[in-house]
Amino acid sequence: MIPVTGFSGQKIAVLGLGRSGLATARALQAGGAIALVWDDGQEARARAEADGFVVTDLTKAGAFEGVSRLITSPGIPNLYPAPHPAILAAYRANVPVDNDVGLFFAALGQADWAQFDRPPRVVAVTGSNGKSTTSALIAHILDVAGVSVQLAGNIGRGVLDIDPPEDGGVVVLELSSYQTELARALTPDIAVFTNLSADHLDRHGGMGGYYAAKRRLFAEGGPDRAVIGIDEVEGLSLSNQLTQGAGDDRVIRISSAQKLDGTNWDVFARKGWLSEWRKGRQVASIDLRDIVGLAGAHNHQNACAAYAVARALGLAPRVIEDALHSFKGLPHRSQVLGELRGVRFVNDSKATNADAAAKALAAYPAIRWICGGLEKEGGLDVARPHFGSVIKAYVIGREAAKFALNLGDLPKEICTDMATAVARAVAEAESGDVVLLAPAAASFDQYDNFEKRGDDFAAQVAQVLAQS
User: Fold this and answer.
1) Same domain for 292 and 387?
2) Residue 137 and residue 284 in one domain
3) pLDDT by residue (tens digit) across 10-41?
4) End of a domain among 53, 73, 98?
5) What b/e string do you get for 332-349 counting C-beta neighbours within 10 Å, with b at 16 or more?
6) 250-266 pLDDT tens trace
7) Is residue 3 in a domain?
8) What is d(CA 75, CA 439) in angstroms, rounded to the nearest whole number?
9) pLDDT at position 116, please?
């Protein structure tokens, strides 16, 4: 646990009692604060009461009298489409609103690190797609290299639930736009921006607000070094805003779509090869083509980002290359489940939007595509240029027929449920095909989350493999 100091004896309200909310309440109490907790769900409130917390209805009049700060969980809207009533009450009572990420960075800033020969460092990763894989890959590389590392934030443990970092240790944080948009302190040593595509637009009031939430990671305090994906105009603009021009190596540009000029510090992947260039000279190159856990151009971008961070932390290219080969990937993110008679099964349930699905479709030449669910704003237009690699689509979801209409002339079959989709894809697949779950849609019409959807796919595939 990271104790939150600076609020000793003060009443701090905590809204939302999921994983991060309870960890926040414990960290505040460990620092001497009085945590007043609330959740709209009765079960969550009962669990908090059983743990000894003071449950206070923050939506009632006068709830914020004597309260110094409100700490809200990331999933609770603070502005769009409308603020939660408790957050609105805090605004009106002039009570500062923050989240656990803001507390984390503020707590680290107050820590006495004079005892360390090498101060711990924090790497923060944000972006639309690839941030989980990039974060996990950075942590994997550091672990293989013998560096003390902890993975937290939107992946792994809550930011305040980790152990105090050790001498020379590194904390790797995956941060969503929900986490960066409100944090009052954002001071990582290295910040990563992977890419940007349309997502969570209702929460941020459109693309401008969504980008602004991501940009705060680089604007609020400013990292010592920034790793920026420049394959979209937003990343290109951000890198330009952060650099001072020729010779400035505080910004490392990364790409999986183009060769960069290498005049400053660039890491890019072309035709399966990762290259590092500094001041006009190639420093290193790595063949990514046979790394099973990093298949496809989107994973090559993730590899570029993780490589750049590891180099900024002082690791040698050969050490990084060895670690890349032992990376197995994350569940539900281009996860290879197995192979049967030359047919590979890949679980990319995390591809919840068209942009993520497009990247998955671009990774393989012959695909039996399982797709469908709650379609997001923007439809499938981004994925359409990659339909040429799809042999046939097997559509799931409660509105499978409606989703199928958006596939145009692509060969397709309405399956509705996962078991039928897998069975039909297996029956028709030939050697060399990939049965790919990349839904291009949210899961909530049939599953609690994308993990449950991916687990169902994995279970269906496991039955097929067991019967072979």
Assistant:
1) no
2) yes
3) 999 999 998 889 999 999 999 999 999 999 99
4) 98
5) bbbbebeebeebbbbbbb
6) 999 999 989 998 889 99
7) no
8) 23
9) 84
**DSSP 8-class letter at 387:** G
Residues 90 and 201 both lie in one domain = no
Sign of the alpha-carbon torsion through 406, 411, 414, 417 = negative
Whether the link from the prior residue into 365 is cis, omega within 30° of 0, is no
* 91 lies in the same domain as 156: no
Of the three residues 307, 325, 343, the one that is the final residue of a domain is 325
Same domain, 142 and 286: yes
Whole-prediction pTM value?
A: 0.86
Burial of 25 (0-12, 13-18, 19+ CB in 10 A): buried
Domain around 73: 11-98
Query: Is 394 inside a domain boundary?
Result: yes
Dump pLDDT digits (tens) for 448-464.
Answer: 999 999 999 999 999 99
Is 126 in the same domain as 197?
yes
352 in Cβ contact with 438 (< 8 Å): no
What is the CB-side half-sphere exposure of residue 175 using CA atoms within 13 A?
Answer: 34
| Better-predicted residue by pLDDT, 439 or 245 | 439
Structural domain tally of the chain?
Answer: 3
- Largest interatomic CA distance in the chain: 68
Spatial distance between the Cα atoms of 237 and 233, rounded to a whole number of angstroms: 6
Could you give the C-alpha distances from 246 to 193, 262, 267, 300, in angstroms and in order?
Answer: 21, 11, 16, 26
How many helices, marked H, and strands, marked E, lie in the chain? 15, 20
Residues 239/114, Cβ–Cβ less than 8 Å:
no
Determine, yes or no, domain membership for 292: yes
Match 């539900």 to its residue by tokens. 332
Single out the residue of 2, 453, 334 nearest to residue 185, CA to CA: 2
What does the alpha-carbon distance between residue 25 and residue 37 come to, in Å, rounded to a whole number?
Answer: 7
**DSSP SS3 for 151:** strand
- Cβ-Cβ contacts under 8 Å for 311 (sequence gap 6 or more): 252, 267, 276, 317, 320
User: Do 372 and 457 lie in a common domain?
Assistant: yes
Q: What is the CATH number of the domain that holds 447?
A: 3.90.190.20
Candidates 261, 265, 230; CA nearest to 250 is 265
In a domain, 330, yes or no: no
Tokens matching residue 36: 């007043």
Please report the pLDDT score of residue 375 as a whole number.
Answer: 86
Condensed to tens digits (0 to 9), the pLDDT of residues 391-435 reads: 999 999 999 999 999 999 999 999 999 999 999 999 999 999 999
**Which residues, listed in sequence order, are joined to residue 225 by a DSSP beta bridge?**
190
Quote the Cα angle for 126-319-143, to 5°: 55
CA 138, 334, 202, 214: dihedral to nearest 10 degrees? 20
Name the pLDDT band for 71 (thresholds 50, 70, 90): very high
